[in-house]
Amino acid sequence: MSSVFALVDCNNFYASCERLFRPDLAGRPIVVLSNNDGCIVARSAEAKALGIKMGVPVYKVERYLQQHDVAVFSSNYALYADMSARVMSILEELAPRVEIYSIDEAFLDLTGIDSIQSLDAFGTRIRQQVGQHTGIRVCVGIAPSKTLAKLANHAAKQYPATGGVVDLTNPERQRRLLALVPVSEVWGVGRRLRQRLETDGIRTALDLASANPKSIRQQYSVILERTVRELNGESCLSLEEITPVKQQIICSRSFGQRITGYQEMREAICAYASRAAEKLRQEQRIAKRLSIFLRTNRFNAAEPQYMPSPSAELPIPTDDTRELVATAVKLLRACWKDGFRYMKAGVMLTDFYETGTFQPDLFNKGAEHPRSKALMAVMDTINQSGHGHVFLAGQGINQVWKMQRRSLSPAYTTRWQDIPVVK
DNA sequence: TCTGGGGTCCTAGGACCC
DNA sequence: TCTGGGGTCCTAGGACCC
User: Fold this and answer.
1) Which one of A79, A92, A94, A284 has the minimum C-beta count within 10 Å?
2) What pLDDT is attached to residue A395?
3) What positions does the domain UmuC occupy (predicted)?
């Protein structure tokens, strides 16, 4: 039996989440900003119609946003993550196998379902169920490979006449769509590849699908070869239901304002290392390598630049906040230089082992903190309960470097005092 | 004044080994 | 005149994704 995938993708997800709890914004353009209110990362249909581009820095379009009465929101990740979980749980009820691909997308395995009902009808049912239970609109693309399902979804979004569902299992229909789509819309083709492909005369998705896979592999990469095969309906990417274990954990932020002093930087590094340690414990892993990095503003050519990224191996892999923070601070002390205006910093953990499986060498036994595990568990429990927040003093209390979120909406669905009240 | 954050995979090249 | 070959491991960098 040949495989059938569906890609379900939420429409303008972040902007839609904001509008769910603000019915007064119906018909008004909405944009959502990145962390630190830096650039635009999501737009409602109305905002797109105004020609506002994805990824533009806010300061470049500030006037324009005001002129057109655009509602502007800081990223409210807690809200989006919670709405996402609701959408995904509905998909999991409808399809036997689901791969949650990102916060607003999921692949479904529909293999064999067409013997029970038409794929189109199934897609419509998904839209209807998700819409009814969450208020979020989705589009559905259906095809024999993930890459084609992505393109089908793109078509469902672009052409309203499709009713938000495109079944691309028919090869002739595939060819017709591929001819219409520029090659840059194909999953896996970014800016660089697009440039190279176009100079080679490959402009549409159909041009790429018609290329010889072998020579694409020689001239480009194995990845693009796979894309060519996928575009021809040969499924090379399987559904991955089980989230793969993380290979690295990064915690980094741009600062709300430039940092020039060691003390503030130390606070920030402590905070990021603590957060990274928390994520590591959630993954049930211990890490053997920790790196930090500092960044000045590379966009400002007039400013002196300094971007160190030292890294250290831990004597024994650990998930203990105190050990990770201490290592991060040691690295910071060694690479810190006065006289720069730092814009961003981060902490990265790599080289993971499953908790409890690492074999320490003979000379290191006993190096582990005896009550470490219990203490970390207590910290995590308190911090996840919503009743309080415990942290190491090193990360500071004022945090003048904290990111800006001037237009943050309430945590409607995840904090008791923010629940909307109906009067 | 002002430009996100968090990931993955692949490849090339150097170090090192026999 | 001539300067092996094959393998592994690690890291850095590039490209992509949302």
Assistant:
1) A284
2) 78
3) 5-190
**C-alpha–C-alpha distance, residues A60 and A39, integer Å:** 9
CB A139 within 8 A of CB A164: yes
CA distance A407 to A65: 14
Please say whether the dihedral angle defined by the alpha carbons of residues A173, A179, A183 and A185, taken in this order, is positive or negative: negative
Mean pLDDT to the nearest integer, A165-180: 97
For position A364, what pLDDT does the model report? 52
Q: Which nucleotides of C are covered by protein (CB under 7 A)?
A: 14-18
- Write the single-letter amino acid at A171: P
Q: Which residue is nearest to nucleotide B8 (CA to C1')?
A: A247
CA A415, A416, A418, A420 torsion-angle sign:
positive
pTM comes to 0.90
Statement: the CB of A190 is under 7 Å from strand C: yes
Separation between Cα atoms, residue A207 and residue A228, nearest integer Å: 10
Contact A91, A125 (CB under 8 A): no
Q: What whole-number distance in Å separates Cα of residue A149 and Cα of residue A167?
A: 9
Domain boundaries, chain A: 248-395
Q: Is A112 helix (H, G, I), strand (E, B) or coil?
A: coil
A179 CB less than 7 Å from any atom of strand B: no
The DSSP 8-state label assigned to residue A162 in this structure reads G
Q: In chain A, what is the straight-line distance between the N-terminal and C-terminal CA atoms, in Å?
A: 55
By the 8 A CB rule, do A43 and A33 touch?
no
CA atom of A309 to C1′ atom of C13, Å: 14
CA atoms of A423 and A22, how far apart (whole Å): 15
The number of beta carbons lying within 10 Å of the beta carbon of residue A238 is: 12
Confidence of residue A371 (pLDDT cuts 50, 70, 90): low
pLDDT in tens, A205-226: 999 999 999 999 989 999 999 9
For A284-328, the pLDDT digits (tens) are 999 999 999 999 988 887 888 888 989 998 888 999 999 999 999
Q: Is A248-395 assigned to CATH 3.30.1490.100?
A: yes
Give the distance, in angstroms, between the CA of residue A285 and the centroid of all CA atoms in the same chain: 21
